[in-house]
């Protein structure tokens, strides 16, 4: 049995969606963000020293980091369905997009969030970096998903689960209007049955809603 330690409004949504898509038995241990600080509770630190989500337990072993969890679950339960063959050209691009989601793309988005929360969103240097980097990354991604429903081989893969977390939220907030291909891509992912099931579960687990 797989146990997912799920934190509301977090990257754990990637894993919750992936588990719904895989259709394997799993259980959820729900953790709630602090209503004032929006930080993860101490209960997650009892599971993993970093106190972050997602964390999964499989066969007595504990694994963290959403990218690693995504690859692990796909390798174990759906390698032929949710990733390209390892000897194919697409496999390298698959790994590239998985890392892109948490490295290149996440940095300016997190900086933008933190500067606003810290009340320093009028800093000329930070604003210039964030805007330039966001535009560069979104233009690259917009061109990459043009005419596609999925990022690699136009077939659902782990890379889509990784990219989904930020893009679907941005699309719902109408933050992607300047990038119609990304918006279409995000809306396509959000329309999938497994994603819809995951979001219904998230609403049940998220006590802040």
Which SSEs are present, and which pair or pack?
Blueprint: E1 2-7, H1 12-22, E2 26-31, H2 42-45, E3 55-58, E4 61-64, H3 66-77, H4 79-82, H5 89-102, H6 106-117, H7 124-144, H8 158-172, H9 180-190, H10 193-205
Parallel strand pairs: 1-2
Antiparallel strand pairs: 1-3, 3-4
Helix pairs in contact: 1-3, 1-8, 1-10, 5-8, 6-7, 8-9
GO cellular component, one term: cytoplasm
Catalytic activity: RX + glutathione = an S-substituted glutathione + a halide anion + H(+)
Protein name: glutathione transferase
Which descriptors would you attach to this protein?
209 residues; Glutaredoxin; Glutathione S-transferase Yfyf (Class Pi), Chain A, domain 2; 2 domains; 10 helices; globular; Glutathione_S-Trfase; glutathione transferase
What does this structure look like?
- This protein has 209 residues and is an alpha+beta fold.
- The protein folds into 2 domains: 2-80 and 194-205, Glutaredoxin, CATH 3.40.30; 85-193, Glutathione S-transferase Yfyf (Class Pi), Chain A, domain 2, CATH 1.20.1050.10.
- The chain contains 10 helices and 4 strands.
- The chain has helices at residues 12-22, 42-45, 66-77, 79-82, 89-102, 106-117, 124-144, 158-172, 180-190, 193-205, and strands at 2-7, 26-31, 55-58, 61-64.
- Strands 2-1-3-4 form a 4-stranded mixed β-sheet, with helices on one face.
- Strand 3 and strand 4 (61-64) form a beta hairpin.
- Helix 1 (12-22) crosses helix 8.
- The longest helix has 21 residues, at 124-144.
């Amino acid at each position: 049995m797989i146990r997912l330690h799920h934190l509301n409004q977090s990257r754990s949504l990637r894993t919750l969606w992936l588990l719904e898509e895989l259709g394997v038995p799993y259980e959820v241990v729900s953790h709630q963000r602090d209503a004032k600080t929006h930080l993860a509770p101490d209960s997650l630190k009892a599971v993993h020293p970093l106190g972050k989500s997602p964390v999964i337990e499989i066969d007595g072993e504990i694994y963290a980091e959403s990218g690693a969890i995504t690859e692990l679950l796909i390798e174990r339960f759906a390698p032929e369905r949710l990733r390209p063959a390892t000897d194919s050209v697409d496999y390298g691009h698959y790994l590239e997009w998985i890392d892109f989601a948490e490295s290149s793309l996440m940095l300016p988005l997190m900086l933008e969030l933190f500067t606003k929360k810290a009340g320093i969103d009028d800093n000329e240097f930070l604003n210039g970096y964030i805007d330039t980097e966001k535009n560069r990354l979104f233009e690259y991604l917009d061109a990459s998903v043009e005419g596609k429903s999925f990022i690699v081989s136009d077939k659902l893969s782990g890379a889509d689960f990784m990219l989904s977390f930020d893009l679907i939220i941005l699309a719902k907030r109408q933050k992607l209007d300047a990038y119609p291909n990304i918006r279409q891509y995000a809306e396509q992912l959000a329309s999938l049955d497994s994603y819809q099931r995951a979001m219904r579960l998230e609403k049940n687990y998220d006590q802040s809603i």
